[in-house]
Amino acid sequence: MNIKSINGFTLLEAILVVAIVSVVVVAVSPLxxxxxxxxDKQDRQIEVMQIGRIAVDDMVRNIKTATEFITISxxxxxxxxxxxxxxxxxxxxxxxxxxxxxxxxxxxxxxxxYYDSDGSTTSDVAEVRTxxxxxxxxxxxxxxxxxxxxxVVTIRKDPAxxxxxxxxxxxxxxxxxxxxxxxxxxxxxYNFGDDAVDVSGxxxxxxxxxxxxxxxxxxxxxxxxxxxxxxxxxxxxxxxVDAGAIKLMVSDTAIGNGLSDNSETLDLLDSGGGAVDTVxxxxxxxxxxxxxxxxxxxxxxxxxxxGNWEASSDTATYTAGTTxxxx
Length: 327
Prior knowledge:
Layout: E1 5-6, E2 9-10, H1 11-63, E3 68-72, E4 76-80, E5 86-92, E6 95-98, E7 101-104, E8 107-115, E9 130-137, E10 147-154, E11 165-171, E12 186-191, E13 197-198, E14 203-204, E15 207-211, E16 217-218, E17 223-227, H2 235-238, E18 246-250, E19 263-269, E20 275-282, E21 294-296, E22 309-311
Parallel strand pairs: 17-18
Antiparallel strand pairs: 1-2, 3-4, 4-5, 5-6, 6-7, 8-9, 9-10, 11-12, 11-21, 12-17, 13-16, 14-15, 14-19, 15-18, 19-20, 21-22
């Protein structure tokens, strides 16, 4: 008896195909499941890392500005900053709160440890000079292990309130130079005060600022351009820097930590360690390698407010050492 065919295949052949496909599916399914689970684990790790990084960066940035501590405990920290604003971080259950609003979750643990000027632990609010942050961030569905984030923050000295100098423009992700990008980066500072200011011995992100072949005195209404070491920088060959700008440099082949292309906190301190200005920029603000720089709109207000920064509208000659296009 002949076996009937089905659309050109015999019934036996069709049965064999179904059987083979079933075997392949059974064999491949565990591998596919492993790939999916691996991707899910990776996504969760990235999410937890972002939660931890954002939370720790926020705490570090603000604790640096503390002038008076009010409450210090293992999981609660309250202090006044330079502007007299009270800031509080507190772990409530699994939620890290900042001034009563959610900053990050789920947080498995948060521990603040306080040290005095000698490096000994202290519980005296008046003696705190350093704060250690240790925080464990967990996955919302507990499918991956907790990640621990730690940082040590040394409290700065009181801000140099009488100095009217601001970080005014940042070229942190230059499209020029290729592999020599760091040699084409620069920071502009602006003296909006009535008196000339000598910035000799000042620091930017821990790097000492010095003259690049001229003066370190920025006149009232004047600009200073900070670059890497004079034998390293390519700024003056690749950019049109205004002739009146004060040429400054740091004694390194990169400024600070290298001016991250994503986000970085820039601390400008005077020669006595007093805080002059601090900016935490983000690549979402502009100037992210697309030919423009990041300009401050008002040098006298809101240094870390995204609304006070915009990408320069001048990508032909730039505004290094001159008035910003956003001013």
